[in-house]
Amino acid sequence: MNEYVEIILSGLLELVIQPFYWAGLLILLLYYRRQGILERKLFHIRLHGYGMPAMWALLGGLCAGVAVSLVMAGIGFTMTPVGAAAVWVTALVLLVFRIRFANFIYAVGVLGLLQLVLSYIPGLPDAGIFGTIFGAIDELNIAALLVLAALLHLAESGLIAWQGKDFALPTYIPGKRGRPVGAYVLRMLWLVPTLLLVPSENGPISLPWTPPLLAGLGLPEATGYMLLALPVMIGMPEVTWTLLPERKAARAARRGLMFGAALLVLALGAVFWSPMTVVVGVAGIALREALIRDSLREEEGQSAMYAHSGRGLRILAVQPGSPAEDMGILPGETLLKVNGSLVATTQQMHESLRVNSAFCKLEVQNRSGESKFLQRPIYDGDHHQLGFIFAPDDASVSEKHAHPLSLPGLWSVHPEQRRISGSSAPESQPVLLLDGPLGKSESIGEPDADITSRKDEDYTDLQRSGTETAKSE
Hints:
Strand content: 15-25%
Helix content: 40-55%
Shape: elongated
């Protein structure tokens, strides 16, 4: 028993001192640091620190790593240090183009294609640095790597269901005819530390069972094994302007489970019939891309949830620790009245708050369309807007997909300068960049019609009469 504990501890030590682990950790921290930068650009406040999301991502990745490592050890998956280096170098090259290519399936699919292409090229060098690289690619067990990729996808789906909503960041994106609407981007990225078996004649441990993967392939079981640390990254961005973040995360988790299960079946087929290997690798990438596109298609053409409907101010987010959070106000609700006055703009809200600087009374329409009445004292130091982040108006800065987020883009955020169509915003207003595709912005629908039961003109009259009543009081 002591030998197993020692080998696990040595594997964990190798993980900590491995440069690939620290490279992944740096990418993770830069990724979540970028969220705080975007919040300051859009809302002029930081809603979330990047330290806590990074800690949650590390915890989730650790849990997934333990589960995947146990399964892979049980079925007899093995890997060499040179093969692990080939996987990580491929992943880093793909990261230069897009952050979402960090997912394990992309590196495995590319390596499978390279292995196939190299097998048809005669006269490749077998010595020197190129010989080492070609030899490492040729010796990779792509089919077994596809099994690992499928298990990581299943683990990713579990993490999305568990933690996905905690990574939701409110944002502004261009809506119909360029008018901005509110949205949530679930920027999910996990670093998963896995410990894999390495066959070795002098390995300190032997397995007390016959690994079914080795037995199924008819391969001899090694006399001893060591552990190899292989940190991998999983996760993908999801965007929604029609759903609450928790519902979007639940849907993404269900789609991911179906994809992971399908990939696992195909990968197991490739294990026992090698001609399927390259086909499964390419199919894995294609299915992953289809998964992302399907998520966008369910949003396109739907009514925007986080947009002003002409009656009150739609709430996109609530600042943690603010009076709004203290009163139990939720994203997706609508602020109708402040101190008895109807409000349709943030300026009107500030004017209504000044009626009584020590106390506020609010009427809020919940997500079901029912009104609730709330009140609370206002203390020194409270946020001047009570902690509300409202849906954007025509002059708001918005985040727009122009170029996919890449590894160099993590180091700094340089918004492009652009004028939002139909708005009064100056040319110097920045339009920020999303890290995932948004599809066609003109397909984002108008706000739901059932949110308001009055015409805009009727509401304007009500607003005017409500303001006059407040002044007379």
